[in-house]
Amino acid sequence: MSARLKRNAVVVTMAVLVCAAAALNWKYAGQEAVKDVQNAGTKILGEAALVSGTEDGEDAPAAAPEDESGVYTGSDYFASARLTRQQARDSAITLLQEAAAQENADASVANEASEGIQVLASYTLKEAQIENLVTAKGYADCVAFMGDDSISVVVSTGDRELTGEDVAKITDIAMTETGYGAGGIKIMAAN
Questions:
Q1: Residue 108 has what pLDDT?
Q2: What pLDDT is stored for residue 40 in this prediction?
Q3: Strand partners, 156
Q4: Average pLDDT per 10 consecutive residues for the chain, totaling 191 residues
Q5: 51 phi and psi, to 5 degrees?
Protein backbone atom coordinates (compact mmCIF):
# COMPACT_ATOMS: atom_id res chain seq x y z
CA MET A 1 0.00 0.00 0.00
CA SER A 2 1.40 3.39 -0.90
CA ALA A 3 2.35 5.99 1.70
CA ARG A 4 -0.43 8.27 0.49
CA LEU A 5 -3.11 5.65 1.11
CA LYS A 6 -1.64 4.91 4.53
CA ARG A 7 -1.76 8.59 5.50
CA ASN A 8 -5.32 8.90 4.25
CA ALA A 9 -6.30 5.81 6.21
CA VAL A 10 -4.71 7.26 9.36
CA VAL A 11 -6.53 10.58 8.94
CA VAL A 12 -9.88 8.87 8.37
CA THR A 13 -9.33 6.48 11.29
CA MET A 14 -8.46 9.35 13.64
CA ALA A 15 -11.52 11.33 12.55
CA VAL A 16 -13.76 8.30 13.18
CA LEU A 17 -12.20 7.75 16.62
CA VAL A 18 -12.70 11.38 17.59
CA CYS A 19 -16.34 11.26 16.46
CA ALA A 20 -16.87 8.03 18.42
CA ALA A 21 -15.33 9.60 21.53
CA ALA A 22 -17.59 12.63 21.19
CA ALA A 23 -20.66 10.39 20.83
CA LEU A 24 -19.71 8.37 23.90
CA ASN A 25 -19.08 11.52 25.92
CA TRP A 26 -22.43 12.91 24.84
CA LYS A 27 -24.19 9.70 25.82
CA TYR A 28 -22.41 9.57 29.18
CA ALA A 29 -23.19 13.24 29.90
CA GLY A 30 -26.85 12.55 29.11
CA GLN A 31 -26.91 9.63 31.55
CA GLU A 32 -25.33 11.79 34.24
CA ALA A 33 -27.92 14.52 33.62
CA VAL A 34 -30.72 11.95 34.10
CA LYS A 35 -29.13 10.81 37.38
CA ASP A 36 -28.89 14.42 38.54
CA VAL A 37 -32.57 14.99 37.76
CA GLN A 38 -33.52 11.79 39.59
CA ASN A 39 -31.42 12.78 42.62
CA ALA A 40 -32.79 16.33 42.67
CA GLY A 41 -35.53 15.22 45.06
CA THR A 42 -32.98 14.80 47.86
CA LYS A 43 -32.47 18.54 48.25
CA ILE A 44 -34.11 20.32 51.16
CA LEU A 45 -36.70 22.86 50.12
CA GLY A 46 -35.76 26.38 51.13
CA GLU A 47 -32.04 25.62 51.08
CA ALA A 48 -30.44 28.26 48.89
CA ALA A 49 -27.05 29.49 47.79
CA LEU A 50 -26.45 33.09 46.92
CA VAL A 51 -25.18 34.07 43.50
CA SER A 52 -21.73 34.45 45.03
CA GLY A 53 -21.85 30.73 45.85
CA THR A 54 -22.00 31.14 49.62
CA GLU A 55 -24.74 30.25 52.06
CA ASP A 56 -26.68 32.96 53.87
CA GLY A 57 -24.52 34.61 56.55
CA GLU A 58 -21.15 33.40 55.23
CA ASP A 59 -18.48 35.77 54.01
CA ALA A 60 -17.90 35.71 50.28
CA PRO A 61 -14.52 34.29 49.25
CA ALA A 62 -12.01 36.58 47.60
CA ALA A 63 -12.68 37.00 43.90
CA ALA A 64 -10.54 34.66 41.84
CA PRO A 65 -9.72 35.16 38.20
CA GLU A 66 -12.40 33.61 36.06
CA ASP A 67 -11.34 30.24 34.73
CA GLU A 68 -13.21 28.68 31.83
CA SER A 69 -13.06 25.22 33.40
CA GLY A 70 -14.94 26.53 36.44
CA VAL A 71 -17.76 27.77 34.26
CA TYR A 72 -18.46 24.27 32.95
CA THR A 73 -18.47 22.32 36.19
CA GLY A 74 -21.47 20.95 38.00
CA SER A 75 -24.56 19.28 36.67
CA ASP A 76 -25.33 21.74 33.87
CA TYR A 77 -25.92 19.37 30.96
CA PHE A 78 -25.82 22.07 28.31
CA ALA A 79 -22.51 23.58 29.39
CA SER A 80 -21.01 20.11 29.74
CA ALA A 81 -22.25 19.07 26.30
CA ARG A 82 -20.85 22.24 24.69
CA LEU A 83 -17.50 21.72 26.38
CA THR A 84 -17.33 18.07 25.32
CA ARG A 85 -18.27 18.98 21.75
CA GLN A 86 -15.63 21.71 21.62
CA GLN A 87 -12.93 19.43 23.06
CA ALA A 88 -13.72 16.75 20.47
CA ARG A 89 -13.59 19.32 17.67
CA ASP A 90 -10.32 20.75 18.97
CA SER A 91 -8.81 17.25 19.02
CA ALA A 92 -9.97 16.55 15.48
CA ILE A 93 -8.62 19.88 14.24
CA THR A 94 -5.28 19.24 15.94
CA LEU A 95 -5.02 15.82 14.27
CA LEU A 96 -5.90 17.28 10.89
CA GLN A 97 -3.37 20.10 11.31
CA GLU A 98 -0.67 17.61 12.28
CA ALA A 99 -1.46 15.45 9.24
CA ALA A 100 -1.23 18.50 6.96
CA ALA A 101 1.97 19.75 8.59
CA GLN A 102 3.97 16.55 8.15
CA GLU A 103 7.04 17.40 6.14
CA ASN A 104 6.55 14.46 3.80
CA ALA A 105 2.79 15.03 3.49
CA ASP A 106 1.32 14.79 0.03
CA ALA A 107 -0.50 17.86 -1.31
CA SER A 108 -3.77 15.90 -1.47
CA VAL A 109 -3.47 14.97 2.23
CA ALA A 110 -2.90 18.62 3.12
CA ASN A 111 -5.90 19.62 1.00
CA GLU A 112 -8.12 16.97 2.61
CA ALA A 113 -7.01 18.09 6.07
CA SER A 114 -7.72 21.71 5.20
CA GLU A 115 -11.17 20.79 3.89
CA GLY A 116 -11.84 18.80 7.07
CA ILE A 117 -10.92 21.79 9.22
CA GLN A 118 -13.21 24.03 7.17
CA VAL A 119 -16.08 21.55 7.55
CA LEU A 120 -15.62 21.42 11.33
CA ALA A 121 -15.50 25.23 11.51
CA SER A 122 -18.69 25.39 9.44
CA TYR A 123 -20.40 22.93 11.80
CA THR A 124 -19.36 25.03 14.80
CA LEU A 125 -20.78 28.22 13.30
CA LYS A 126 -24.05 26.57 12.26
CA GLU A 127 -24.49 24.93 15.67
CA ALA A 128 -23.95 28.25 17.44
CA GLN A 129 -26.43 29.99 15.13
CA ILE A 130 -29.06 27.30 15.72
CA GLU A 131 -28.52 27.46 19.49
CA ASN A 132 -28.88 31.26 19.48
CA LEU A 133 -32.02 31.21 17.33
CA VAL A 134 -33.68 28.49 19.42
CA THR A 135 -33.01 30.33 22.69
CA ALA A 136 -34.26 33.54 21.04
CA LYS A 137 -37.59 31.74 20.52
CA GLY A 138 -37.96 31.56 24.30
CA TYR A 139 -36.49 28.19 25.22
CA ALA A 140 -34.36 28.02 28.36
CA ASP A 141 -31.29 26.50 26.69
CA CYS A 142 -30.24 24.52 23.65
CA VAL A 143 -27.27 22.57 22.32
CA ALA A 144 -26.85 21.28 18.75
CA PHE A 145 -24.65 18.47 17.44
CA MET A 146 -24.10 18.55 13.69
CA GLY A 147 -22.86 15.72 11.50
CA ASP A 148 -22.38 15.12 7.78
CA ASP A 149 -26.05 14.56 6.99
CA SER A 150 -27.92 15.01 10.27
CA ILE A 151 -28.21 17.22 13.32
CA SER A 152 -29.41 16.57 16.86
CA VAL A 153 -30.84 19.44 18.88
CA VAL A 154 -31.36 19.10 22.64
CA VAL A 155 -33.68 21.75 24.10
CA SER A 156 -34.58 22.73 27.63
CA THR A 157 -38.22 23.72 27.81
CA GLY A 158 -38.21 24.38 31.53
CA ASP A 159 -40.89 22.33 33.27
CA ARG A 160 -43.13 21.76 30.28
CA GLU A 161 -43.14 18.99 27.67
CA LEU A 162 -41.83 19.44 24.13
CA THR A 163 -44.94 19.92 21.94
CA GLY A 164 -45.47 19.41 18.23
CA GLU A 165 -45.39 23.18 17.80
CA ASP A 166 -42.01 23.31 19.56
CA VAL A 167 -40.64 20.57 17.30
CA ALA A 168 -41.92 22.40 14.21
CA LYS A 169 -40.26 25.69 15.25
CA ILE A 170 -36.94 24.04 16.00
CA THR A 171 -37.05 21.88 12.87
CA ASP A 172 -37.66 24.99 10.76
CA ILE A 173 -34.64 26.72 12.31
CA ALA A 174 -32.42 23.66 11.80
CA MET A 175 -33.56 23.14 8.20
CA THR A 176 -32.98 26.81 7.35
CA GLU A 177 -29.50 26.92 8.88
CA THR A 178 -28.20 23.53 7.68
CA GLY A 179 -30.11 22.80 4.48
CA TYR A 180 -30.89 19.30 5.83
CA GLY A 181 -34.28 17.75 5.30
CA ALA A 182 -36.62 17.14 8.21
CA GLY A 183 -35.60 13.46 8.24
CA GLY A 184 -32.04 14.44 9.15
CA ILE A 185 -33.08 16.48 12.19
CA LYS A 186 -33.55 14.94 15.63
CA ILE A 187 -35.00 17.07 18.43
CA MET A 188 -35.00 16.01 22.08
CA ALA A 189 -36.11 17.62 25.30
CA ALA A 190 -33.75 17.72 28.28
CA ASN A 191 -35.86 18.52 31.32
A1: 83
A2: 52
A3: 141
A4: 71 68 64 54 45 49 43 64 91 87 81 88 93 91 92 87 91 93 91 62
A5: -60, -30
Taking the mean position of all CA atoms in its chain, how far away is CA 76?
13
pTM above 0.70, yes or no: no
Q: Which residues contact 175 (CB under 8 A, 6 or more apart)?
A: 181, 182, 185
CB atoms within 10 A of CB 187: 20
Instruction: Count CB-CB contacts under 10 A for residue 80.
Output: 21
Please state, as a whole number, how many other Cβ atoms lie within 10 Å of the Cβ of residue 151: 22
CB 189 within 8 A of CB 157: yes
